[in-house]
Amino acid sequence: MRTLIRNLGAVASGDIAAPLLDADEILIEDGLIAAVGRGLGAGAGADADQVIDAHGTTAIPGLIDSHAHPVFGDFTPRQRTMDFIESGLHGGVTTVISAGEVHLPGRPKDVVGLKALAIVAARSYQNHRPAGVKVHAGAPILELGLEEHDFAEMAAAGVTLIGEIGLGSVKTGAQAAPMVVWAKQHGMTVTFHTGGPSIAGSSAIGADAVLEARPHIVGHINGGTTAMSDPDIERLVATDMAIEIVQCGNGRAALHAVRAAAGLGGLDRVILGNDAPSGSGVIPLGILRTMAHLASLGGIAPEVAVAMATGNTARIHGLDVGLIAPGRAADLCLIDAPVGSVASTALGALAIGDLPGISMVLIDGEVRIGRSRNTAPAARAAEILGGGGPAAGGH
Ligand SMILES: [Zn+2]
Q1: Which of 263, 265, 354, 395 has the greatest CB tally within 10 Å of its CB?
Q2: Is 86 helix (H, G, I), strand (E, B) or coil?
């Protein structure tokens, strides 16, 4: 199956080292991006099975939510909400990464139980993609009593993540440090909660604990929802750890963190998440909202904000998504300025704080939705030539 997307107005690659490509066409073959450039329709793409006319809209990689709290399937017990992942697809999110299945009613906190939950969550989402969205889950919350062989056992069973440290009985840097070493030895990607507690019974976590434990990712450096002090934020930005900014955090602290990162040349370590479902609800447009926040108020170029929500996260987690480049999974969003915006392009809209309208999302080269039912309508909309596209979402 070969699909040619033509008439693109812009291509934001997701690669922060080269965030804008000189291209107006993308060729997809068997779910992977085969080529990006100009004139493909006259060459390698001439015999495409399917042609999508982008009508001048902008292509970006499918967005990655680096911090979600799914449990099983597309239901969240925390907000009693069905289909929140499918709703997020209508906000451009094609990959979701769990920071812990913390909302499971009766979540087991003993070692056997937490290992079992992590393995079941990892495997159930390997077998099931809600609305086509790729969910990476099975992120155990660390509890006292875990030993090295427990990490080996989970890794052998397919667990690749450690949920945000601090939500369980492991809270201090000294408690976490040896477990982080074991997790890294077994190929797991580790996130540490920072800031005030999100649930009663846990305590605030500052820079000292994170610096002692050395996770891969400073979880919601702008708080979830209560942020650390500005000096603590600066101490964690001045490391080689990934810096996560979330929608359900402190908006002022997000700007402080991103400015600190820019000052140190560290924008390639900034990744974006929702931290939802949570007490703040479910936020289908949360990644787009965070991109617009940073681009309009944080001095971040809109195409760099795209990279923070795509290629940066894929690099930190070792995923084959997040870039518009040959060989990558063809997870793509076609977006434009929304109707009524002062801006005339999707990137221009982000720069002034408007949310782009989505007119098409593809996952593994397959068109999953047409016009989003959640974004404002895109001024221009991509279409599948010859008809047969998905029905437009309602408003
Ligand atoms: Zn948290």
Answers
A1: 354
A2: helix
**Parallel, antiparallel or unpaired: strands 366-369 and 383-384:** unpaired
Model-wide pTM > 0.90 = yes
Cα–ligand 1 centroid distance for 106 (angstroms): 19
Closest CA to 314 of 89, 108, 65: 65
C-alpha distance from residue 10 to each of 52, 60, 304, 341 (Å): 15, 9, 14, 18
CA of 195 to the centre of ligand 1 (A): 8
Q: What is the pLDDT along the chain (395 residues), one digit of tens a residue?
A: 999 999 999 999 999 999 999 999 999 999 999 999 999 988 888 899 999 999 999 999 999 999 999 999 999 999 999 999 999 999 999 999 999 999 999 999 999 999 999 999 999 999 999 999 999 999 999 999 999 999 999 999 999 999 999 999 999 999 999 999 999 999 999 999 999 988 777 779 999 999 999 999 999 999 999 999 999 999 999 999 999 999 999 999 999 999 999 999 999 999 999 999 999 999 999 999 999 999 999 999 999 999 999 999 999 999 999 999 999 999 999 999 999 999 999 999 999 999 999 999 999 999 999 999 999 999 999 999 975 566 555 44
CA of 142 to the centre of ligand 1 (A): 13
